[in-house]
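Input sequence (373 aa), recorded before submission:
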Amino acid sequence: MKALIAMTTLALALGTTASPARLLAADAASVVRQLEVVRAIDGYPAPKVRAVARSAYLLAYFKDETHSLHFATSADGYTFTDVNDGAPVLSGRAVADQKGIRDPHIMRGPDGDFYMSMTDLHIFAKREGLRATDWERPEKDYGWGNNRNLILMKSHDLLHWTLAKVDVSALFPAFAQAGNAWAPETIWNPARKRMMVYFTTRIGNGPNFMVQSLANPTFTTLTTEPKQILHYPRPAVNTIDADITRVGDRYRMFYVAHEQPGSIRQAVSRRIDGGYVYDARKIDPETVAAEAPNLWKRYGTNTYVLMYDVFGTKPNNMGFAETTDFKTFRNVGRFNDPGSRMKTTNFTAPKHGTVMAITPEEAARLRGYFSAR
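Predicted structure, token format:
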């Protein structure tokens, strides 16, 4: 009965008319408690917390098995525990046009609110009976994994979220034939005083490249035509999965170049929205293909952690390297590998994740919300 009530509440929040019975049949992920999707977050202010350091960590990730959002927290940045015992915190079938989400990114804005972006895509939808074709549109015209939507979400408290599906091809005539909109991430643009969303796209079935656009204040759409943010010296090479962090007076972009094999590269600029200087060096220490880089800082240190999805190994895993100077990157291993300090306690095979600093109280609030089911 609690599960049925939870699904009915989710259906109402999303404005759907599906019956609880249909929801039960459609998605087993809905039988556990979920984040709440609401029309507006004004009624859900951020809880008052003590002025404490953001010494805990939140990992947002997805899994191929669920094509849904998962959260895990850590008190020390080394051992991560899923807040929902490995079950999704938000069902991809409930929020995405393709009935699946990938590539979640989460960050805290200067206003204190949380901004989350994801790819609206299910790569196994045909196999799972969610569509009759391999992809939304013909692969010969639009490529592997073609999709249209970015998913943008905003929250005051990490529990209640607005939801917007942004069709880049419908918004901007120059991208009417865009083959994809993958791996969106968000960063505050101080010069424009707006959130900048950057993501991977392509025209038709051409090579992938990365673009940036500004979002509106409610984080429900993009307002400026996307512009290419990195010009790789070999345009035919697919470049994907940008992750940008301001470090000192420079912006450091980590991204993937699909050389042989796909590997993590770094580019640096004094501007947030362009001017990134190409560096040929491979950053990650892997001998197999890696993607989805994400940079985060260890609390109380000058050490940065570069996390990435090692999809070239089976099962896939997250790998980690540490740096203090952005010239040398020390391999600290993968989750649960022998000799690695990086651990998971109740989940395996996370994909394309991002880590954000949070307070211990925020971590406790998330765990409490999902334990009260």
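Checked by second reader. Residues 2-14 form the longest helix (13 residues).
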